[in-house]
Queue: 2 jobs
Job 1
Amino acid sequence: MIFSDSELSRVEIVELLGGANDEELRARASRVKSGTVGDKVYLRGLIELSNRCQKNCLYCGIRAGNHACERYELDMPEVEQAVRYAYEQGYGSVVIQAGERSTDEFVDFVERCVLRVKQISNGTLGVTLSLGEQTEAVYRRWFEAGAHRYLLRIESSNAGLYERIHPHAGHSFERRRESLLTLQKVGYRLGTGVMIGLPGQSLQDLADDLFFMRDLGVNMCGMGPYIEHPDAPLGVSEYSLEQRFTLALRMISLLRIMMPRINIASTTALHAIDPCGRERGIAAGANVIMPNITPAIRRSNYKLYNNKPLTDIDLSSFDVQYNHWGDIF
Ligand code: SAH
Ligand code: SF4
């Protein structure tokens, strides 16, 4: 298949996801990246604030129903330690991620964390939150405290598949979609993403995921392969790990071509499958890496999926852009 200059159609995308023309796909994504966001890699320091969660997503290792999971929450000195590290290393921003909770204590704590990041860094570190679905009032409070980006994955844009990978109680595709719109309304730069290679997911579904992100006009995307967790009930994918990995790279390249100027993360789940996973994600068209800066003793408890890497990433192979938020708008 030869690339036309016009926009990729759904049929073409499905063919490319099927491996119709890998080399040309990667070369084109690479050209688009160089000509728009450039070839630097932007760093976001990932702070895994807590693995407590009120939700029960069927794929996730820290779901509320997993009683085998030892729960933790960082205290403020641990958060400060991570933030100082990010600041001293010249990171552009930090991502505060955790299981979803809506208690007043949690909302207050997050607000205080955001304020501390801004104080410690004299306002220079950007703050991204990834804390699930919250009310508009809570999104607004955190925004006013200084968080300006939010990551909330749609997980799958196929409503039927979304319903199959989440229990009925407490989860709804429509509410997730509305949360994304609310975040945009409040003023966040919005990031979303999907899991790739879910049981029952087709290439057409993945093509539709790409259109979903384009139509929503997201500013960031983090997507990666689905990886089974032994204590999560969703079960085994019909795609091999290798197939999921390859599909994830193709998704990154396609999204870079469809949305040339957005920030695309090369995610940790890629690294869980291949030791060079994040490097290959960057080569496929991603421009963001999120090294884990959670204090080391807590990391083993934040286990979303099997084989999640616990060690620090070696950044020497990347052309890193330090002291920069990575905004190209
Ligand atoms: N609780 C927040 C943030 C933490 S979960 C939220 O749900 O948004 C962050 C992401 O981890 C989820 O969006 C999901 O896409 C991913 N994840 C969870 N379990 C996974 C698995 N088994 N394989 C791959 N990714 C997974
Ligand atoms: Fe909780 Fe997020 Fe895991 Fe769902 S994916 S169970 S909301 S941590």
Note: The longest strand covers residues 41-50.
Job 2
Amino acid sequence: MNTVTVSAPGKLLLLGDHAVVYGYPLLVTSVNQRLHLKATLLNDALFQLEAPDVNVHNLSKTMHEIGRGEIIKGASYIERGLINFMLKYPFKGGVKIETQSEFSSQFGFGSSSASIVSLIKAMAVLIGVNLDNKELFDISYKTLIDVAGIGSGFDLAAAIYGGVIFYITPGKVIESVKVESLSLVVGYTGVKVNTASVVREVAELRTQKKEFVDTQLKLIGEYVQSVKQAIMKKDWAFVGSLMNKNQEVLERLGVSSPKLDALIGAARKAGAYGAKLSGAGRGDCMIALVSSEKKQLVSEAITSAGGQIIPIETNAAGVVVE
Ligand code: PMV
């Protein structure tokens, strides 16, 4: 085989934001917007990349040059992922990579993680290596840490396994939570967030107020455990109430924002079971859990408050060869 196309889903963090970095569990769902990656083996030892969604056009260098010198931001995960793959599975010749995403890299849906996972999977298929999901996770996680320096890796788990996942970093627990789908409304704030810098701010706050921050993180961990059970029982009112409590903790940690607060407040007022930010905070998206009767009203309320509705379905399949 000379060419393969692979796709992996984006994700939304349901509960457990930030606390996951400190060893507490988290709940994440994959979404039905996917990143597609086509990989083609080349006879010459060249690396070529076309990733228009992250402004990479006609990138071409020798295989020897990947990961060296000045690396374009949009190419960093792919270049590092390829290096990490080759450390375990060297191959001759080169490769051309083309990516195309169904979702904007601005949303915080995890496009970098979906591209790392797709790349490693595609390379394994092309050179005939049988990678299991755990090894796929491990190479992907190393790549994430090499480039970003920090991160729990939950988005990699969502991209690999799909569905709703109960996760403990770094892939210590990756457990599928049985639920058909979650009725979520997603509101984008229009603000792109640098996850690593918000994670570092929480770490900084923790050095100043360790006891306070640790108490908050522990609370989040407890909410996640309770919600895992409640999701399986479809007790949406309870899940929603703990989403609200999780949001309160994130506000106390200082990672919400006036725009997020406005969208979350509007969603609750319009009858959502619960609403919270999703991810690092400060921007990106908020999520609201709703009944089917309230979906329209909640969507309109978020729009009126200045949010952009991103239509998604939860529980998409994990990485697949197309
Ligand atoms: O901003 P996102 O969607 O990449 O999520 C970040 C979630 C954090 O818990 C804050 C960090 C992490 O790596 O888990």
Note: The mean pLDDT is 97.
